[in-house]
Amino acid sequence: MIKIEQVSKSYFVNGRVISALQDVSLHVKEGSIYGVIGYSGAGKSTLLRLVNGLEKPDKGEIEVQGKLLTKLPENELNALRKNIGMVFQQFNLLESQTVFQNIALPLILTKVSKKDQEDRVNTLLDFVDLREKANVKVSQLSGGQKQRIGIARALATNPEILLCDEATSALDPHTTDAILDLLVKVNEQFGVTILLITHEMDVIRKICDQITIMEAGKIVEQGDTLEIFKNPQQEITKRFVETVVSNRVPRIISEQLLPTDTVAKLIFVGRHAGDGILHSLALVFNIKISILAASISELRNDLLGILIVKIEGDYFNFSAIEEYLLEQNVSIERLGEF
């Protein structure tokens, strides 16, 4: 659906060259929700502008729905953009216009008949659950309601791709959850492929199938969301994951541990993956297991459980424990000294 191959982009600012993207490659599968995360200056917004054809890369290729953007004439590029919806951080709505008028704007620009405009707008108002606000001016809406209208407007022309630029960063946590649920609904009900950028790992956790982590214009890690959460490799990825998944022993407990204590992290996937595993592990290896910390995180399509435990016993083989757990689809990692 979207293929970005070895793309680089630079800008000339105040007499010097600023590199925004360096050899970036990623593939967004049709029908998926793909998240790109990074701190400010990572190059995320530049990436969206390139995918939307608003700018051209200095190097590399961008393919959208089988078409190379760098080789499309302007008229074909404009036609392709009609199949790409855009949701913005600050909504980008016409505050003095009504909800109905805002959603209808893309239809007016594409010369859709008034009857079809009315039908489509009312359908979308029902979809975002704001039919009663049709004739209300946007300036009178809450932030969450404005973003619902922004999503409805982005869907007006029946796009197959939706680009989301920090769509929830201006919202409170409760409203953020509601907007994320709506984006999942867009994806599942209409089959729309979503590419979103964010600096919030909780957004990735809740709705994304795949993820790319960026820093200073470069990709530092990418893969399936579950695998990234299970086993982050790079330091920046670990920091992002730790904002939503607890991987640490509480300080008050760690201060009581000895350097000789065996402390390990167990990772479970799925609703029943860890059922009874500690009990059976203790019996098989004649060991005592104490839980030091625990967390369960709900990803879009899975549950991820993490246990930090202390293992005690006269004699035990950690490698044998690791092998036994892998047979039960549970991974284990020996943690460092405390």
UniProtKB/TrEMBL annotation:
PROSITE patterns noted in UniProt: ABC_TRANSPORTER_1 (PS00211), ABC_TRANSPORTER_2 (PS50893)
Keyword Cell inner membrane: no
Cellular component GO terms held in the UniProt record: plasma membrane
Keywords annotated in UniProt: Amino-acid transport, ATP-binding, Cell membrane, Membrane, Nucleotide-binding, Translocase, Transport
Catalytic reaction(s) noted: ATP + H2O = ADP + phosphate + H(+)
Boundaries of every ABC transporter domain copy: 2-241
Main location: membrane
Family membership noted in the UniProt record: Belongs to the ABC transporter superfamily.
Protein known as: ATP-binding cassette domain-containing protein
